[in-house]
């Protein structure tokens, strides 16, 4: 059973999760959000495992786009799925390694940026 708190009617919705495995729950959630009036549904996750029927489920789902990081290789079929986008964390990892080597702060990589007035 899924519970939704609040209204999504006419809204763009972003589902955030740590990982996507078979995408069953994710696709059910997207379907439920659309049924409740969401205009568009997107998903973002750190790790896209995409096991078993995941890629086909995403393809057939109400999801507009699924964005994951390249923390694990995409399985066959996922690279060509139009709804799946994979972003690289190479620059972030390189900067973290450099800061560790130079004995500089790594946590400041994740601190909010101040606006230039």
Short recap of the structure:
The protein is α/β, with parallel strands linked by helices.
Largest sheet: 4 strands, parallel
Radius of gyration from the alpha-carbon trace, in angstroms = 17 Å
Tell me, rounded to a whole number, the average pLDDT. Answer: 94
Numbering strands along the chain, what is their spatial order in the largest sheet? 1-2-3-4
Bulk shape: globular
Parts with pLDDT < 50 across at least 5 consecutive residues = none
Order of helices and strands: EHEHEEH
Bin the helical content: 25-40%
Please give the alpha-carbon distance between the first and last residues.
48 Å
Structural class: alpha/beta
Number of strands: 4
Strand content: 15-25%
Count of helix runs: 3
Architecture blueprint of SSEs:
Elements: E1 12-20, H1 24-35, E2 40-48, H2 54-60, E3 63-69, E4 84-87, H3 90-101
Care to describe what's here?
With 117 residues, the chain is of the alpha/beta class. Helix content is 26%, strand content 25%. It contains three helices and four strands. The model has no long low-confidence stretch (mean pLDDT 94).
